[in-house]
Design goal:
Elements: H1 4-19, H2 23-51, H3 53-61, H4 71-95, H5 97-104, H6 108-112, H7 118-138, H8 141-150, H9 155-181, H10 186-202, H11 212-221, H12 223-231, H13 237-263
Helix pairs in contact: 1-7, 2-4, 4-9, 4-10, 7-9, 7-13, 9-10, 9-12, 9-13, 12-13
Length: 264
């Protein structure tokens, strides 16, 4: 039976070690700067688009264009898509230390012999990484405050976009945790996690030239297509199941790797 208290103990330990080092603050600063710059750039483009006289004339003739030129599609979706790509490349760096650092500091054996199961250890580290992801995404609250303060975006699509972003981010974290569990070296953990992330991204690229059934399979296997479902403003059950299955798969593989490593 899983002990929630043990999971929380491991999670608190991970968060404490993360925030006493400059890594967390550097990552938060870079994320805030990168997404802030992109948000400002996207807002300027959106403003220029609305000021375009020819576009305004076309909108007067065709009001349906307003369904495509709005804060959700031109601003929020752009920012969440940009953040999705940032997470794809940055999540391996978040997770590279989860198990490799235990081995570097010679605390791995102590952790494995503690009265906590491997499942609880893996889940505790994953919970800590997920909480840090929430802190990272919380930097977007400034952008959302600006958009809701000066505009009128639809709340439902915004919630769907950020739910999809959080699920995708947790999937990248689960992959990063697995990569950290199979090696002693942080750089190898980063390379393995990034290779898996890029593989899930590039699967859809082959769908364009594949025959119908294979094309459908490749699209369903690609992480981007499921994130885009959320980013369109709709919460798809199939895409939710995809992300949860991906998380469960790599956490299970991480547990197997940790058990194998502790026996060797």
């Amino acid at each position: 039976m899983i002990n929630v208290f043990s999971i929380w103990t491991i999670a608190k330990r991970e968060l404490k070690s993360l925030f006493v080092s400059p890594v967390a603050y550097v990552v938060l600063g870079l994320f805030a700067f990168g997404t802030g710059y992109y948000f400002t750039f996207s807002m300027q483009r959106f403003d220029a688009l609305l000021r375009d006289a020819q576009l305004q004339a076309r909108m007067m003739q065709n009001p349906d264009m307003l369904n495509y030129i709005n804060l959700n599609s031109f601003l929020i979706n752009n920012v969440t898509s940009f953040t999705f790509m940032l997470l794809l490349f940055c999540a391996p760096f978040f997770c590279m230390r989860l198990f490799t650092e235990e081995r570097i500091n010679s605390t791995y054996e102590l952790l494995m012999t503690s009265p906590i199961s491997v499942t609880e250890i893996v889940l505790g580290k994953f919970v800590a990484a997920s909480l840090f992801l929430l802190v990272v995404l919380a930097t977007h609250s400034i952008f959302l405050a600006v958009m809701f303060g000066f505009g009128n975006p639809e709340i439902g699509p915004v919630v769907a976009s950020y739910l999809g972003l959080f699920l995708a981010g947790m999937s990248f974290l689960a992959i990063g945790l697995f990569a950290s569990s199979i090696t002693k070296y942080q750089i190898i953990a980063v390379i393995v996690a990034m290779a898996i992330n890029l593989g899930l991204l590039m699967i859809s690229w082959g769908a364009e030239n594949a025959f119908e059934n294979l094309s459908l399979f490749l699209n369903k296997a690609a992480i981007t297509s499921h994130f885009e479902n959320f980013n369109q403003g709709v919460i798809y059950i199939s895409s939710t199941v995809y992300f949860l299955s991906l998380i469960a798969l790599f956490l299970s593989m991480g547990q197997i790797a940790v058990r194998s490593f502790s026996r060797s």
